[in-house]
Design goal:
heterotrimer, A alpha/beta, B alpha/beta, C alpha+beta, A: Aspartate Aminotransferase, domain 1, seven-stranded mixed beta sheet, four-stranded antiparallel beta sheet, 36% helix, C: alpha+beta, three-stranded antiparallel beta sheet
C-alpha cells in the first residue's frame, strides 16, 4: 500500500503486543452498526507513473498563462526567480509544522521575523504579522481589528474600488455583527469619493490602491479625511506596486494589508497565496494572526519565538478577536525569499517594467478609433479599463483567436460600466510582441466598425 | 558568527539576486502618474547576492525539525509523510500558471481535479454537499456555523443561537462560533473522557443551534454514544457539526453521516497529506447534508451538460470567505494523494494509524500515566503523574525528546488533562521507528527519576536553548531595526 | 489558609473592605494557575481607568502569562477610585505578594452586601475540589 511501511509481520507482532487478534478489534469502540459495510465508492489507487500521466493529461486541458495573458484583477503573473522554488522546497521548511517548540524551529521562526521586517518596510509601517490566508482575509481581519480599536462606532466605509471578492468576504464575516457596511462610490475619474460618508459613527475606511479598475487613489487625502473623522484608515495594496508607489505608511494609514501572490508565487488558479498585515506597534495586542518576536535563551543567545500568543484562539477561545489558526507560512516564505532576492532595487525594477508595459499598451490602445481608456492614460499603474466598441466578451474571443488569453470582462463586477469594459493587466513578463499582437487584434475590430 | 546573522546583517548596498533583462518598450514615465502618488523612501529590504541568499535559507532550514528528518508525533496535527509526488505534480504549468478568472472552458482540468476530490470527500463522509473554498480548518468551521446560522434564519428559527462545545475541543471552535454571531456554551466531559450526556441534555433546548463535536475526540477516543448524541441534538431541533481534525482514524471504516452528522470540515493538511509548511497553507473543505447544500459558500464547481463550471452566484449561498475558488494548490496535492490510495488505501490508512497509536500506548503505559487507558483511535494522551514527584513537567519530557532527535508530542492540550502529552504516530511510521521511540521514552522516564536535571536542562543540542518567552512579550522586538 | 480578612470569588479574585473602599486583587492560586507548566511569568495586565463604574461581578480587566489569560472580575459593585500602577510594568509584585503589594484596584463601594461572596474557608474548599 502506498506510503505505509508496516509489513504483515510487523502488524502481527504489534497486534500481539496490544493483545488483540486482528485489526478489526482495534475499532471495537465504534459500534458495529455505525461501521461501513463494504468499500467506499472511490476508484482503485494508481501507481505513481499512472498518476503523473493522469495529471499531465488534466493539466493539458487547462490554458496556461505562459502564452500571453492580460488577466490581473488581484492575481498577476510575475517572474519567479529559481531561488524561490528551490529554497522554499527544502523539506525542512515544507514538512515542519507551526513553531510551537522554538528550539527546534529557529529556521521557520527566523524566516517569519525577517518576513515581518520586510513587510513592515514595504508597507512603511512599524510592524507586521507573520501573514494571513490571503489579501481578502487580511482586509477583513483589518476591518474587525479596527472595530476593536474604536469600539463604539459601527460604520464601516468600503470603497467600491476594493476587489469584489474582498467586499464579498467582508460581507460574509460581518453578516451577523452589529457593524454596518457603507459603500463609497467611485467618481468619474475612477477614484473613491468619500464625500458625506465620514462622521462620528465611522469606525473604519477601507480602500485599495491601485483600485480594482487600476486607478491610483489619492491616499494622502483618504488617510487625512479618515483621521479627521476619528476613524481607522485601512489600505489594501498591491505589493509589487510599492516598488514605486507611495506606501500606506507614508500616506498616513493606520493599517496596511495586501495579497502576497505577486511576491514569488504562481497564480495556481487562485491559491494558496498569503495576506500581508501591518500596523503601528501600539496596536499589537489587537492585531490578528501569528507574531514572532526576538528574545534570548539562558546563555544570552539571540533566538525567536511566537509571541503575544495570549491573543490567539487556542488560549483565548471564545474571547479571541479572530479564529485564525495558521498563517500561510510556506507561501509567506516564498514571499520572504522573493523580497530578499529582489531587494529595494529589484522590486523597483519589476514595478517600473510593469508600468512601462502598461504605458506602452495604453498609449497604443487609446489611439485606436472607437477604443478609449475610461479613466485616462495617466491614472494607472499596470492595469487599466478599456472601453471597447463591442462587448468585452467578444473582444476576448478575438484575443483568444490570436493565441493569447484576454482581459477581464467587467460586466458582472461593475455592471455600471456596461458590457464593453475590459480590464487589462501587464507585468514585466508581458512582451512587446504580445502587446503589439493585442493592439493589432483590437485594431482589426476597430476598423470593422464604422467610426461613431 | 556569520551563520547566525539575519539577512539584514548580511546586506550590502548594491547587491541583489533578481535582475530583469533589457526592457523591450520605452522606459516607464513616472511623471505621468498622479501627483503625490510616488514612494519617497525605499523600503529597507535586504540587498544580497544569490550565493549568500541561497546559503542563508539553507542554513535556516537546518535549524528546523521536520517530518523528513525526524519522527514527529505531534498529537492532533497528523504529521504523516507528505508524498513527494504531490509536490511534483503541482509544478505543472497547466496547474501553476493558471489564472482563476479564466473562462470555465479553459480550466476544465483544474475543475475536474476539484470535482473528483469533492466527490471523494462526499463518499468518505457520506455527506453529499461539498465546498472546497475554505482556506483552512478554522475557516471551514466558521463556514459551517455560518451555514447553520443562515439555515435557521431562513427557516424562522432565529432564536437558535447556542453552540454547544465540549471542554476538550480545539480553541478555534468557540472562537469561530462568536464570529458566526452565535454563542459558545461549554459541555463537560464525563469521567470516561466522552461527552457527559446529562450535561448535554440539560443544555439542549429551543435555543440550540449546533453541537460541535470532535470525533474521535482530542483525547483520541471515539464517542461511543455519537448516534445517541446526534439523536438528542436532532430531537431538540439542532444540527450536529463534526470537527474532522481526526478523520484519519476512521476514514473508510465509518462514515460520519451514518452517526447523524450534518456538517463537518476536513483538514487536508492532516488527513490528506498536504504539507504543513511551517504553519500553512492548509485547506478546510466542508461536507454537509443535502438539506444544507444550498447555503454553501461561492464559488462551487457544478457539473453541467457541456462540462464543469464555477458557480459564483448561487442565490442562498452565505457568500465568499476568501478570494477565488480555494487553495487550489493544496487541493491538487490532496487529489494526488487520494488517487494514489484509492478506496482500499484509504481504509488501510485508518487501520495502520490506529494500530500504531495503540502499539505506542500499550508499550508506554507502564512508564507514563495514561488517564484513559483503553483502546484508542489514532492518538492517545498521557501525562506526567508518574514523573511529577521528581519535579518533571510535560515540557521537560518534550524538550528532552528534542535532544534525542524527535519533534515532541503536543503538550498542555487538551486542557481537560493536566500536563497532557498527546501522541499521534500516524500510519506512515514503521514499527522500527516506533520501537526506537519507545526505547527513548523509557529512557526519559528513567532519567526523570535518576537524573531530572538532564531533563530540566534540555534541549542542549539545538541552536538555542529554552528561550525567555516572557521577555518576548514584556520587551517586544517584532522586527529588525538597524542599530546605526 | 488564605487571609480571612477578606472575601473571595470562585474565579480567584479577593476583595478587602475598608470603610467605603474595597481593595481588589487575585489569589496565589490564580497566579499559580496562570503560570503552570514552568513557562510562567505574568507578562501583561490590563486595568481599568479611574472613574469607571463596575457592577457586581463585572470584568474590569485581564491578566496574561505567556501561555494563558484570565479575566479580572470585581466581587462587588462600585466606582474605580485608584489603580495600582506600580504593578503594570512589574507583575512580579503580583506573583510575589498577591495579598498586599500586588493589589489591583480600589473601588468606592456602591454596596457592601457580601452575602454572595466566599469566605476564606469556603474558597479553600473549592480549591480542594479542583486539585
Amino acid at each position: 500500500m502506498p506510503f505505509i511501511q508496516n509489513t504483515d509481520s510487523d502488524r502481527a507482532e504489534m497486534l500481539a503486543a496490544i493483545g488483540v487478534q486482528k485489526v478489526e478489534d482495534l475499532f471495537e469502540q465504534i459500534p458495529a452498526e455505525l461501521r461501513l459495510k463494504g468499500s467506499l465508492p472511490i476508484d482503485a489507487g494508481l501507481s505513481e507513473n499512472e498518476l503523473r500521466a493522469e495529471v499531465a493529461e488534466l493539466a493539458s486541458w487547462n490554458s496556461s498563462m505562459e502564452k500571453g495573458c492580460f488577466l490581473g484583477a488581484g492575481m498577476y503573473r510575475h517572474f519567479i526567480p529559481t531561488v524561490v522554488d528551490s529554497l522554499q522546497s527544502r523539506h525542512e521548511f515544507v514538512t515542519a509544522y507551526t513553531p510551537y517548540q522554538p528550539e527546534g524551529s529557529q529556521g521557520t521562526l527566523t524566516v517569519f521575523f525577517e518576513f515581518q521586517t520586510m513587510v513592515a518596510e514595504l508597507m512603511g509601517m512599524e510592524i507586521a504579522n507573520a501573514s494571513m490566508y490571503d489579501g481578502c482575509s487580511a482586509a477583513t481581519e483589518a476591518v474587525i481589528m479596527a472595530c476593536n480599536l474604536v469600539r463604539k462606532r459601527k460604520k464601516v466605509v468600503v470603497s467600491r474600488g476594493v476587489h469584489p471578492h474582498t467586499r464579498r468576504t467582508l460581507e460574509t464575516y460581518l453578516r451577523w455583527s452589529e457593524l454596518e457596511v457603507v459603500e463609497a462610490p467611485l467618481g468619474s475619474d475612477g477614484t473613491t469619493n468619500l464625500e458625506g460618508l465620514l462622521d462620528d459613527q465611522t469606525c473604519s475606511v477601507l480602500v485599495q490602491n491601485p483600485n480594482t479598475l487600476g486607478v491610483i487613489e489619492d491616499l494622502d487625502g483618504i488617510a487625512a479625511k479618515t483621521k479627521e473623522a476619528g476613524g481607522i484608515s485601512i489600505c489594501s495594496c498591491y505589493p509589487t506596486s510599492l516598488g514605486i508607489l507611495k506606501s500606506p505608511g507614508e500616506a498616513g494609514f493606520d493599517i496596511a494589508v495586501g495579497d502576497g501572490q505577486c511576491l514569488g508565487t504562481a497564480p495556481a488558479f487562485g491559491g494558496p497565496s498569503f495576506g500581508l498585515f501591518a500596523c503601528a506597534q501600539k496596536h499589537v495586542r489587537k492585531m490578528p494572526g501569528r507574531i514572532v518576536g526576538e528574545t534570548v535563551d539562558s546563555q544570552g543567545r539571540r533566538g525567536f519565538a511566537l509571541t503575544f500568543q495570549a491573543r490567539e484562539q487556542h488560549i483565548r477561545r471564545e474571547k479571541a478577536s479572530s479564529n485564525i489558526c495558521t498563517n500561510n507560512a510556506l507561501i509567506a516564505l516564498r514571499g520572504a525569499i522573493y523580497m530578499a532576492a529582489a531587494g529595494p532595487d529589484g522590486l523597483a525594477e519589476v514595478a517600473n517594467h510593469s508600468l512601462a508595459k502598461a504605458q506602452y499598451a495604453s498609449k497604443a490602445l487609446s489611439s485606436l478609433a472607437n477604443f478609449e481608456l475610461i479613466f485616462g492614460e495617466s491614472s494607472h499603474f499596470n492595469e487599466f479599463v478599456l472601453r471597447c466598441p463591442i462587448p468585452a466578451a467578444e473582444v476576448n474571443r478575438a484575443i483568444d483567436s490570436s493565441g493569447m488569453i484576454g482581459g477581464l470582462d467587467l460586466s458582472s463586477w461593475y455592471p455600471e460600466l456596461g458590457d464593453n469594459a475590459l480590464l487589462l493587466a501587464f507585468t514585466e513578463l508581458t512582451t512587446r510582441e504580445q502587446i503589439d499582437r493585442l493592439v493589432s487584434t483590437l485594431s482589426n475590430i476597430a476598423t470593422a466598425i464604422p467610426v461613431a | 558568527m556569520n551563520k547566525d546573522k539575519l539577512l539584514f546583517e548580511k546586506s550590502t548596498r548594491g547587491s541583489r539576486t533578481l535582475r530583469l533583462g533589457k526592457l523591450d518598450v520605452p522606459p516607464a514615465d513616472l511623471s505621468a502618474l498622479p501627483a503625490g502618488s510616488l514612494r519617497q523612501k525605499a523600503p529597507m529590504l535586504p540587498e544580497i547576492g544569490e550565493l549568500d541568499l541561497v546559503r542563508h535559507y539553507v542554513l535556516l532550514s537546518k535549524k528546523n525539525i521536520s517530518i523528513t528528518d525526524s519522527f514527529y508525533p505531534l498529537g492532533s496535527c497528523t504529521m504523516k509523510y507528505n508524498p513527494l509526488t504531490n509536490e511534483a505534480i503541482v509544478q505543472n504549468p497547466g496547474l501553476a500558471d493558471l489564472h482563476p478568472a479564466e473562462d470555465d472552458g479553459r480550466v476544465q482540468g483544474a475543475l475536474r481535479i476539484m470535482k473528483t476530490l469533492a466527490d471523494g470527500l462526499a463518499a468518505i463522509t457520506g455527506l453529499p454537499g461539498v465546498t472546497l473554498h475554505p482556506a483552512a480548518g478554522a475557516q471551514g468551521e466558521l463556514t459551517a456555523l455560518l451555514v447553520a446560522h443562515a439555515h435557521f434564519h431562513a427557516s424562522g428559527q432565529s432564536q437558535r443561537t447556542k453552540v454547544l462545545i465540549p471542554d476538550s475541543a480545539h480553541g478555534t471552535n468557540p472562537a469561530s462560533a462568536v464570529i458566526a454571531g452565535l454563542e459558545a456554551v461549554e459541555i463537560k466531559s464525563g469521567e470516561d473522557g466522552l461527552v457527559d450526556l446529562e450535561d448535554l441534555s440539560s443544555k439542549l433546548g429551543e435555543d440550540t443551534a449546533v453541537l460541535m463535536i470532535t470525533n474521535p475526540s482530542t483525547l483520541g477516543l471515539f464517542e461511543t454514544n455519537i448516534a445517541k448524541i446526534s439523536e438528542m441534538v436532532h430531537a431538540a431541533g439542532g444540527l450536529v457539526y463534526m470537527d474532522g481534525a481526526n478523520l484519519n482514524a476512521i476514514m473508510g471504516i465509518a462514515r460520519p453521516a451514518d452517526f447523524g452528522v450534518d456538517m463537518m470540515h476536513i483538514n487536508l493538511h492532516k488527513t490528506f497529506s498536504t504539507p504543513h509548511g511551517g504553519g500553512g497553507p492548509g485547506a478546510g473543505p466542508i461536507c454537509v447534508t443535502e438539506a444544507l447544500e444550498s447555503y454553501l459558500p461561492s464559488p462551487r464547481v457544478v457539473e453541467e451538460e457541456n462540462g464543469l463550471r464555477l458557480d459564483y452566484d448561487s442565490p442562498r449561498s452565505i457568500g465568499m470567505l476568501r478570494g477565488w475558488a480555494g487553495n487550489f494548490g493544496v487541493l491538487a496535492r490532496a487529489y494526488s494523494y487520494m488517487r494514489r490510495l484509492g478506496a482500499e488505501g484509504i481504509r488501510r490508512v485508518a487501520e495502520n494509524a490506529v494500530l500504531n497509536a495503540n502499539y505506542l500506548r500499550t508499550q508506554l503505559s507502564d512508564a507514563y500515566h495514561v488517564p484513559y487507558d483503553r483502546m484508542c483511535m489514532h492518538e492517545f494522551v498521557c501525562n506526567n503523574r508518574k514523573q511529577r514527584e521528581h519535579g518533571i513537567h510535560a515540557l521537560d519530557v518534550a524538550k528532552r525528546l528534542i535532544d534525542l532527535g524527535y519533534h515532541p508530542m503536543t503538550i498542555y492540550f487538551p486542557l481537560v488533562v493536566s500536563e497532557a502529552m498527546m501522541i499521534e504516530p500516524t500510519e506512515t511510521e514503521s514499527k522500527a521507528t516506533l520501537d526506537a521511540f519507545i526505547a527513548d521514552m523509557l529512557l526519559i522516564a528513567d532519567e526523570a527519576k535518576n537524573n531530572p536535571e538532564k531533563l530540566h536542562a534540555a534541549p542542549v543540542t539545538t541552536p538555542v536553548g529554552r528561550l525567555d518567552e516572557a521577555r518576548a512579550v514584556k520587551q517586544p522586538v517584532l522586527r529588525y531595526a538597524s542599530s546605526s | 489558609m488564605r487571609p480571612d480578612d477578606r472575601h473571595y470569588l470562585s474565579s480567584h479574585e479577593w476583595i478587602k473592605i475598608s470603610g467605603e473602599t474595597g481593595i481588589i486583587g487575585i489569589t496565589d492560586f490564580a497566579v499559580e494557575e496562570l503560570s503552570s507548566g514552568n513557562e510562567g511569568d505574568l507578562v501583561y495586565c490590563d486595568l481599568p481607568e479611574v472613574g469607571r463604574v463596575l457592577e457586581n461581578g463585572e470584568t474590569f480587566g485581564e491578566i496574561e502569562s505567556v501561555k494563558a489569560v484570565a479575566d479580572l472580575n470585581t466581587p462587588l459593585a462600585g466606582e474605580v477610585s485608584e489603580v495600582n500602577t506600580a504593578i503594570e510594568d512589574h507583575l512580579e509584585i503580583v506573583a510575589e505578594d498577591p495579598w498586599e503589594r500586588g493589589w489591583m484596584i480600589k473601588i468606592k463601594l456602591s454596596n457592601k452586601d457580601t452575602g454572595k461572596l466566599l469566605s476564606a474557608a469556603a474558597y479553600e474548599e473549592i480549591l480542594a475540589k479542583q486539585s
